[in-house]
Amino acid sequence: MFGHDAPMTAPSGSNLRRVLVLRSFVIGGLLLAGVLAVRLLELPLPLPPLFSVIGLLTLVNLLTWWRLRQPWPVADGEFFAQLLVDVLAITVLLYYAGGSTNPLVSYYLVPLVIAAITLPAVYTWSMAALTAACYTLLMFNYYPLMPRDGNFSTAIYLHLTGMWLTFVLSAFLIAFFVVRMANAVKARDQALAGAREETLRNERIVALGTLAAGAAHELGTPLATMAVVTTELQQEYAGEPELVEDLRLLRQQVDNCKHILSDMLAAAGQGRAEDAAAQPLDEYLAGLLEKWQLVKPGVTVAAEWQGALPAPHIAADQTLTQALLNLLNNAADASFENVEIYGCWQNNELDLEIRDRGPGLAPEVQQRAGQPFFTTKGHGFGIGLFLANATIERFGGKVLLLNREGGGAITRVSLPLTKLLIKP
Question: Average pLDDT for residues 212-222, to the nearest whole number?
Answer without folding.
Answer: 64
